[in-house]
Amino acid sequence: MAQDQDRVRRGRPRSEAARAAVLRAASELANEVGLRSMTTDEIASRSGVSKATIYKWWPTKYAVAAEAFLSEMFVESSDPDTGSAREDFRQALRGLIQFYTGKTGRAYAELIGEAQFDPQIRAQLRDTLVASRRRLVRAIWERGVARGELRGDVDPEDAIDLIFGPAMYRLVAGHAPLDKASADAIVDTAMRGLAK
Questions:
Q1: Cβ(149)–Cβ(85) under 8 Å?
Q2: Residue ranges of domains in the chain, CATH in brackets
Q3: CA geometry: angle at 101 spanning 88 and 192, to 5°?
Q4: pLDDT, tens digit, for every residue of 41-79?
Q5: What does pTM read for this prediction?
Q6: What backbone torsions phi and psi does residue 178 show, to the nearest 5 degrees?
């Protein structure tokens, strides 16, 4: 195990400027031509980073897109840590909805669609983007339980799905609005069963 980790760490470290250029290029291309149509060659050309380097850092163009979306999502929906679980959930969900309805939202929905048919894309989406977002939301949950605001007898994974799942469903199905008012209504409804 330690030898494997040493092998991964060898070589030149990843340049943050090059990483940012690749993620920006992937996001732009996903919005311009669509996730399925964009190519790693186009990402390399636009970012100025070699295709070999991109493949060294990410296994597929979808992996690049997942990381690009994660970066953008954290800008829109970071951990507010206001001192109130209800307010933290409200702000985090509003930020997520802002990402979903922003310029990258449709491309992100396309990635979710691709993940339904490709296990590698599904694993990349789950391991890169979803796991990271769930850690952030779990921190909100744990603070709320510790402050006595939220029920400690509720499985946090179920609570997270209850609060954030409706936004994903609305993004994919398009059956109901995705806006600040709907974010507030979703949190208020969920809190009726989750708050102490």
A1: yes
A2: 2-60 (1.10.10.60), 66-194 (1.10.357.10)
A3: 35
A4: 999 999 999 999 999 999 999 999 999 998 888 887 778
A5: 0.82
A6: -120, 95
